[in-house]
């Protein structure tokens, strides 16, 4: 593609606009979106400082780019017909120089665009033209070498105001003139309050890969002792991708506000954390003992759960108190409203951003298996299990009234043998990235369940099966969440999260040892065959349904069920799941209409 055509395509790149946004009203090209962004933030000028702005595409640069690169030689062969572009050609420079001298500016730009993918300096020779095509029409842009920047610095800063801000973009590597981070550091020392009020700063870099800006931003902040809110790197590779360039500029200008909001919140959190620890430390010993030990034992609740609950009560109120501090609240809301105005500018989230946010939402909705199983946490409504192996592997979720699932201090549940205490329901997550079929009223949607938060799941209530909790409880005994027990091995020495479960674990081991003894009793008279027969009859099933029951197995004192606890639906999402299941069970069945005429086959 010729440069002129490529530039038009870059500038005209579309994004999916959100309904009702400012960008939707004025258009969706990169230039128009950039103009809306600049208008919202009162940015009246862009200044770009780069030591390679006056670098020409000459014979020396072309010779260097193609001399030892076969791909580059093939790419530019049409520009230099009938000459050997390899290092073996002793007259390569002279021949390229002779042909290059006959090129007009457009053809030089075409050649530079072709070489840009192979050589950074070649890319720099058309960077200014690419930048021009991405800026709004007739928008003031000033291009400066480092020397000219030093001459005009004070004049340019004096032009900046809250109603006419400037976006400064500095190349990080400025040759003999130092680094862009040093310039930004000097600006911060001169007037830190001007960042976000009078100007914004970004770092352009030809050594930074597109998409790696955020990680490099944190590295530079640490290496150069430069606060994160003061700058944001932008890869020059974005200049050939209009949407990516817009996104990089957007991140640069919104960064100062986002970081100030984060810092304001962090200061509140830090202060509240200290106050929380102080109040926690000063709790009366008798009060603490009653809350953590006495009350937990009576209700069959984990002491660790009660401890976390107590901390949360104190911490939540302290954080809210700090955030409601008038000065901090005013600063936070003012910054947030500025960001909100900018956020109204239509833009599409990048794939990377969507993936990050989807994963964050999934972390909010689901607790990972490692935190549950390492803690040896008792069964809860919303626990998710893998059942089976290989192609038969399927997700199931436990649904049950929390009070009925609680193990009391005796090591028993209130309704231990009642089949209605809990059920396991299968979860359909779809296939090949396609969403599962949703049957309204007959199940429950688990958003962000799989695929890093990109895939939903659907709980199929119609296929739910009662579950034997005295078998499923085996997952609590192991830190890997597997539903199995080896009655020949020693019991784990680590205590459980409550006295109730210490008693429960002892009873479970006793029960399975007794069953193993009955099974092994047949080995003397009938050998392995008799043991297998007895195991078939005596192995306690995890559930009556064959799809779960078939995974149960016995081998020399070891019971295994092909079930593993892998995560948990967090509250209040888990309560919504239980409520939906309750509505499913209580749905009305209307009498059929006996007056309706029915035809054969209908």
Proportion of strand residues: 5-15%
* Average of the residue pLDDT scores: 85
Quantity of strands, as a count: 15
Spatial extent as radius of gyration:
34 Å
> How many discrete domains?
3
- Largest sheet, described in full? 10 strands, antiparallel
Structural class: alpha+beta
The level of helicity is: 40-55%
- Coarse shape: elongated
How large is the count of helical segments?
25
Low-confidence stretches are: 1-12, 14-27
Give the N-terminus to C-terminus distance in angstroms: 61 Å
Oligomer: single chain
Q: What is the structure about, briefly put?
A:
By secondary structure, the chain is an alpha+beta fold.
Walk me through what this model shows.
The chain has 602 residues and is α+β, with helices and mostly antiparallel strands. The protein folds into three domains: 27-255, no CATH class; 261-367, no CATH class; 368-584, no CATH class. Helices cover 49% and strands 14% of the residues. Strands 6, 7, 8, 9, 10, 11, 12, 13, 14 and 15 form a ten-stranded antiparallel beta sheet that branches. Strands 2-1-3-4-5 form a five-stranded parallel beta sheet. A hairpin with a 2-residue loop joins strand 14 and strand 15. The longest helix has 40 residues, at 242-281. It is elongated. It starts with a helix and ends in a 17-residue tail after the last helix. Mean pLDDT is 85; it is low at 1-12 and 14-27.
Helix-strand blueprint:
Blueprint: H1 3-11, H2 22-26, H3 30-40, E1 43-49, H4 59-66, H5 70-75, H6 92-100, H7 105-115, H8 120-125, H9 127-134, E2 141-144, H10 146-159, E3 165-171, H11 180-191, E4 199-205, H12 213-224, E5 233-235, H13 242-281, H14 285-299, H15 303-323, H16 326-343, H17 351-365, E6 366-368, H18 369-374, E7 383-387, E8 394-400, H19 402-405, E9 422-428, E10 443-450, E11 455-460, E12 465-466, H20 469-472, H21 474-477, E13 482-486, H22 499-520, H23 523-538, H24 546-549, E14 553-555, E15 558-569, H25 573-585
